[in-house]
Amino acid sequence: MRKVLAQGGCVDGDCPAFWIDDETGTVTVRGFEPGSNTRERDVTIPVEVWDRLVAQLPR
Prior knowledge:
Number of strands: 4
Low-confidence stretches: none
Mean pLDDT: 87
Shape: globular
Strand order of the largest sheet: 1-2-3-4
Structural class: alpha+beta
Number of helices: 1
Strand content: 35-45%
């Protein structure tokens, strides 16, 4: 099961978003392909890498 962490609020389908897989902790980021405002691509980030990235964010 996946849980949406944040989304872009598009009204006509998929849009930029972050979500996490509850079972594995893997985070998926959906964003626009370079040079396109309509096509999107998903990038999967393993939980270990996501934890390192989040730890670097200012609080």
